[in-house]
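Hi Y.,

Following your request, here is the sequence exactly as I used it, all 298 residues.
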Amino acid sequence: MTEPARGPSEAGSGVEPPIAPHVRERFALLERFAPGEGARWAAELWCTPPAVEMSLRMPPGVPPSRPIEAAWDGNRVIGESWGEGDPVYLVHGWGGCQAHLGVFVKPLVEAGYRVIAFDLPSHNGSDPGAMAPGRTTIVECAKAVHAVVDEFGPAHAILGHSLGAKATALAVSWGAAAQRLVFLAPMGDFSWYLDVFTQRHGFGPRIRDGLHRRLDQKLGMPLFDTDIAAVADRPDNPPLLVIHDPDDPDSPYGFSEQIVTAWPNALLHTTKGLGRLAHYRILRHRPALDAAVAFIAS
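Below is the corresponding structure, written out as tokens. Let me know if you'd prefer a different format.
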């Protein structure tokens, strides 16, 4: 089993821009002289989805869609629907959009499912939650997943990428009904991302600890309780297929191995050689697509 990297790391595929030097310099000063202010600023940045440089348009061959809408706590979630049959939900990752999972639409419709894709809170057309526009949290994303499933019916399957996998696991632990789950490059434990975020932004343990406390408060629950690992061993969890590439620098492959070990009735499908952009290339990788569709339709 691969042990996930735990120490600070300049992890990232290059899809997100590097942190500007003046930001790192300011955080270094705040670490020394005003860690509380630094933690407040860090929490705002943590809750701001990045602008991922990928197309917002559905890939060629996707049939015409119908608009859909759901609501959680009075906030709208918007998306699209294709086909008829038992619903299969597509949940994009942090900074993503529904189009990022577009290659799954056509084969799932042809397999006889109604496919529903939507934008998470503060992503593209969906409303923000309790925070300012352009910001959201893992708890709000999980609430949105739960709301869409409640609105359009129990899932034959939910397919989630990266943070979308984490939000899906949390929503299912809260009672969102699903017969099967597929996680593509699921986001690992937040403890690792806190270390990476700390290193990238150039602050130290005082701001990191304050950031952690602020996130616990914003979520209304401990940040680490939202990890997939925290809900993986529930005996009523549905069957799970995890698809991941060891090259992925954004979500360590070792976390997927741990998830599959802890999750009852889980399988790991390993892709190979997707390189530094593996976290996003997996969304267009034919073997990953075929494995996901076969698992959903089996």
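The two ends are 28 Å apart (CA to CA).

Thanks again,
Q.
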